Amino acid sequence: MSGHVIVRTSVGPSPEVTSALAAAGVATAHEASGRHGLLGPALRPIYPGARIAGRAVTVLSHPGDNLMIHASIEQCRPGDVLVVATTSRCTDGMFGDLFATQLRHRGVLGLVTDAGVRDVADLTAMGFPVWSRAVHAQGTAKAVPGSVNVPVVVAGRLVHPGDIVVADDDGVLCVPLAEGERVVEAAAVRERNEEAKRRRFAAGELGLDVYDMRPLLERLGVRYVDAEPER
Amino acid sequence: MSGHVIVRTSVGPSPEVTSALAAAGVATAHEASGRHGLLGPALRPIYPGARIAGRAVTVLSHPGDNLMIHASIEQCRPGDVLVVATTSRCTDGMFGDLFATQLRHRGVLGLVTDAGVRDVADLTAMGFPVWSRAVHAQGTAKAVPGSVNVPVVVAGRLVHPGDIVVADDDGVLCVPLAEGERVVEAAAVRERNEEAKRRRFAAGELGLDVYDMRPLLERLGVRYVDAEPER
Amino acid sequence: MSGHVIVRTSVGPSPEVTSALAAAGVATAHEASGRHGLLGPALRPIYPGARIAGRAVTVLSHPGDNLMIHASIEQCRPGDVLVVATTSRCTDGMFGDLFATQLRHRGVLGLVTDAGVRDVADLTAMGFPVWSRAVHAQGTAKAVPGSVNVPVVVAGRLVHPGDIVVADDDGVLCVPLAEGERVVEAAAVRERNEEAKRRRFAAGELGLDVYDMRPLLERLGVRYVDAEPER
Amino acid sequence: MSGHVIVRTSVGPSPEVTSALAAAGVATAHEASGRHGLLGPALRPIYPGARIAGRAVTVLSHPGDNLMIHASIEQCRPGDVLVVATTSRCTDGMFGDLFATQLRHRGVLGLVTDAGVRDVADLTAMGFPVWSRAVHAQGTAKAVPGSVNVPVVVAGRLVHPGDIVVADDDGVLCVPLAEGERVVEAAAVRERNEEAKRRRFAAGELGLDVYDMRPLLERLGVRYVDAEPER
Amino acid sequence: MSGHVIVRTSVGPSPEVTSALAAAGVATAHEASGRHGLLGPALRPIYPGARIAGRAVTVLSHPGDNLMIHASIEQCRPGDVLVVATTSRCTDGMFGDLFATQLRHRGVLGLVTDAGVRDVADLTAMGFPVWSRAVHAQGTAKAVPGSVNVPVVVAGRLVHPGDIVVADDDGVLCVPLAEGERVVEAAAVRERNEEAKRRRFAAGELGLDVYDMRPLLERLGVRYVDAEPER
Amino acid sequence: MSGHVIVRTSVGPSPEVTSALAAAGVATAHEASGRHGLLGPALRPIYPGARIAGRAVTVLSHPGDNLMIHASIEQCRPGDVLVVATTSRCTDGMFGDLFATQLRHRGVLGLVTDAGVRDVADLTAMGFPVWSRAVHAQGTAKAVPGSVNVPVVVAGRLVHPGDIVVADDDGVLCVPLAEGERVVEAAAVRERNEEAKRRRFAAGELGLDVYDMRPLLERLGVRYVDAEPER
Questions:
Q1: pLDDT in tens, F140-191
Q2: Which residue of B66, B68, B119, B140 is the best one to mutate when testing the A interface, meaning the one whose CB has the most A CBs within 10 A?
Q3: CA D142 – CA E130 distance, rounded (Å)
Q4: Pair D58, D165: CB distance under 8 Å
Q5: Assuming Cys at both sites, which of C41, C70, D126, E77 could form a disulfide with B207, CB separation 3.0 to 4.6 Å?
Q6: What is the pLDDT confidence band of residue B229, given thresholds at 50, 70 and 90?
Q7: Which residues in chain C touch residue E138, judged by CB atoms under 8 angstroms apart?
């Protein structure tokens, strides 16, 4: 894929899939996916409590340049999540409240960016959630080309345009589009399973017994000993 | 200490010591201890405002594996703080709300971990405080042995099982068990001392005078000069 | 500038300039300044929502030693912001609530430090804002000389005593004293400009059109393509 | 791609392509590729002077576990480069001289790993080059499943099995298999171009003139000024 | 252990143990020790090729202050390794060629430091090896007390005075004094074992077979599949 | 200093000063300067053994853009050192062998950059030394304006055009132009002093005695104790 492109695409998940994954949250959906696609812990929310899931519209920008974010907005539709990567590590404030105003008008749910964000007080007041690598006011140029809706790597994980991005206080997950329904089903199974365990644990049972781990500990040679009288 | 062990031990501080150290908080107790035992600044609380002190139950886990956390829970009793180290650097989400449910049932006060944590929205809602190196949903295996209640290094400081762990918004402190009462006394002295100073400072006095530092500045050759008219 | 000095100086911005820059905030003032002087993203506020602008009183300390912070307080007056640098990287808790009590009495607005801070729960309760590289309770010595009101580098940017420090949730900006009025004017222009754009964006216009970027994208060779049916 | 798999594949570049790319080196091939696919600067060679290009055989391992490296060796053939990723950040010494002995027998050219390596003195003596994130002797388990020859992200870039990995003192590049011949041709053009420029520069010409950048500087508003007599 | 002390001690390993561990090297001794005591990968040698093992003489210094290194030298004897920790993270050049001259006279083998080192060209010319967290010329004070020959944490691992420090191109290992002879024996077994495997691997056998891992892969559900014709 | 400028200046140190500082080296000149101006330890030489001192020609570039390096070369003369800063953190390979060819022709001694460098094998073969934050082949744009010969901050220290940059295996030092002769003299004194000490230390004397530190240790309350029989 040589050359810089803006890809128009309508491919994406159904609202049923995204609402189910938003309800499941990152940790459960990550487990349900077979533990694929979790973005690295460097991405943090600018405020606590947001939980979203939506179609990824991806941007690949030059560091210190947000031209392609401008170019991407037209490609967004309601229920999307904008996902910004840079061609090399960057913490500049490539995104702020004027972008959020444009995206909010289009029904975009939030931003995931491998770079920095600014105007975080305004974004918090708007209730426009952002997961970013940094908060930094550093201004950017609009001079270098890039691409929209190409596969990108964000915080160490591949995101294709059209994939499902789930984000909450635990971080950000990318579920491949084709996996969406399978993950929704697996998440529902997992949630029922976890709820049953939660009740048992709240009643005093131990994971050691519930998961039958004592034989494993013994097989691995872990020994129980009593502490010496003093150390 | 070859081999993997789970050490059963009832050694630990008295409730008087832990409640006094919780009241003192990390900064005061750190000073009172002679400035020993403060864990590094990489450990941060998942929500502000918690302040705890309790007996350390320690876990040494393989990176990416939480089997030994399961094994540790049975060793916990009311007033304990679970302390998790890994044999090499790890930010995986080795701990989540199902563990917290088990620990809460046993009266455990919170978690200090050199690795990652997940389900932070649930943990915050439960009021179960965690100090961790990262928030990350990354799932872990349960396949590799480790130890419980052995000495561990967490964020650069040694923690023995039975030591007193104090944690608040300033971070995490480990007070050796044998030092507990001495530190409580020294903290009380320090608090009275600080309160007296706080009143003097609030009234306009300077530390420079209260601590009699002007002669020291002079002896060190620090000179007072007036700014040049312009620069 | 050999030797250690404490420089007495009354040079600084007018209240009109500082209040205008506090109102503008970091991101707008940074743009208005021509994108100079923004401190790096490693400095973060200890609590959200504070926004200040004031005259910089600078401190250059040895790592792990807060003697010169003591020496600096006498040089502060109402509307100042204390700015602490260290001669090498340090995250120790060089500043706590007893310092804040002294500074509050003098009308100082807050602290910006390239090192660590402690007593953050107390500082938050006091409403004394701090932007720091770390939160750490590590105690410090008072034994090594340094200087007050000399030029310092903090988080990668030069701060002269008397410069205007602006800080909010987006980070910290240093506006050179001589640039203050020019930046205030440019910020006002920018704010009006942004407000006009915000209304257009809220009404559905795109930055791509408002800033007339389509010809630039074309000139840079960015092509629009339709997604292949599947991938 | 749910589940753990070892993919057998014979797809890969021709020897002509890999030898041409090894001759071009990372910087030239990166430019020739349109500036795609360069792995991040965290990967460094264990000794200077190696330069290789070969077919990627990829491994996705659990952190702290090298079982899948064992499983991968059988899939290697002469001219391959082993590429190891982990499901979360890891610096353990997952690879050492016993692995290199097995790979050397199979004609494998070297290792690129997002984790750590050990036995570096032996590997250097063998002339088996490694590009890694860390040198660390930390031992690993062989207990957790993973995959071989699936797409992986290494130091922020996607590598498919069969892609062409180029590595030298400047770092590591991944050229997609389908792009190989195009990149070889573009690299040859670039090398001739660079050689011509190198001669002109060595004779005293400036890039400013050779690339005709003076009009651009003027258009961007960059002004030439003479320094004030003193500062 | 309140207060600052310089502990005089003659406890340490025998020359047989240290020479055997130096011959084994870090990776082998680490495995032989049961995978305990390896210092973190942040410590790197200032030049390649050194390999030492000796008795640890430990120093706990204030950051930016090398007074206690001066105090430690008198406690060193032939065959020792000086091990320097700081009470908080520090990269200053606390050690240089004048210290090495003193230590060389006393027969000290090298330095392991959690802080910085300077004069590395001179140290290299002298053949005095150093493993450090940084190379930095930053000068230090001599004003703040600390301790000599107390337990310290260096790069995340506990080192007691008298323990055996092994260091080579793979990093630094601490073997507890009481474990020395056991580790020497285990290392010898491991070396013979590795040598046998090395011959088998060099002849083309696979670790997969030598370690009988195929059944494990099957039990873990790892499947062999053939690549699709194209991707 | 609003707007982008290329400052023409002939101000700089004499050859006597630079050759004396090159001979002294970074650590000695840093001490002689009163411990000012040492750049941070993140800057490392691409090969060991180089030692230079020369006049700083400074460049302030946008991240990921080397246009201003092109613009700077014309401002260089024999004996200069090019010093590159970026407006935000960047590790891209903004500099390579074609630049070095141009600079070598003009008699420039080397490069100090807060960003990345590429073609390091070629630069090493040319004997053109570089101190950089990273080695990375990432290509850069030539589209965004910046400045030449303005004050810049590099690795946390201020460099004015015309200042004296000293660089060797210990890192990089900036000596303000006006301080050059004073530092040369102080360095000569220090070298004689150090040479005398080196002889005494080589003969077995201790710094503890040579610097008369025993009374200080006693005054600071450091006590000598004998180790307990065992631990």
A1: 999 999 999 999 999 999 999 999 999 999 999 999 999 999 999 999 999 9
A2: B119
A3: 33
A4: no
A5: C70
A6: low
A7: 87-88
Residue whose pair of structure tokens reads 């960016």 in the numeric block: A113
Above pLDDT 90, what percent of chain F? 97
pLDDT classification of C231: cutoffs 50, 70, 90: very low
Q: What is the pLDDT of residue A231?
A: 46
The whole-number pLDDT of residue F2 equals: 53
What's residue F231's pLDDT? 46
- The pLDDT, as a whole number, for residue E68 is 98
- What SS3 state is found at D47? coil
* Measured distance CA(E117)–CA(E137) in Å, rounded: 7
Pick the closest to residue B67 from D93, E218, D90, A219 (CA basis): A219
Environment class of residue B218 by beta-carbon count within 10 Å: exposed (0-12), middle (13-18) or buried (19+)? exposed
What number is the ipTM of this complex? 0.95
Check CB contact under 8 Å for E2 and B87. Answer: no
Of D154-163, D221-230, E75-84, E160-169, minimum mean pLDDT range: D221-230
Name the percent of chain C lying above pLDDT 70. Answer: 97
What integer is the mean pLDDT of A68-92? 98
Chains F and B touch (3+ CB pairs under 8 A): no
The minimum CA-CA distance between B62 and chain E, rounded to whole Å, is: 11
- Chain C CB contacts of E64 under 8 Å are 62-65, 87-88, 90, 144
Whose CA is closest to C210, among A75, A110, A98? Answer: A98
Of the candidates F68, E108, E156, E169, the one whose C-alpha atom is nearest the C-alpha of residue D124 is E169
H or E element at residue B24: helix B15-24
Q: State which residue of chain C sits closest to B206, comparing Cα positions.
A: C102
Mean pLDDT of F198-227: 96
Task: Label each residue of chain A as H, E or C.
Answer: CCCCEEEECCCCCCHHHHHHHHHHCHHHHHHHCCCCCECCCCCEECCCCCCEEEEEEEEEECCCECHHHHHHHCCCCCCEEEEEEECCCCCCEEECHHHHHHHHHCCCCEEEEEEEECCHHHHHHHCCCEEEEEECCCCCECCCCCEECCCEEECCEEECCCCEEEEECCEEEEECHHHHHHHHHHHHHHHHHHHHHHHHHHCCCCHHHHCCCHHHHHHCCCEEEECCCCC
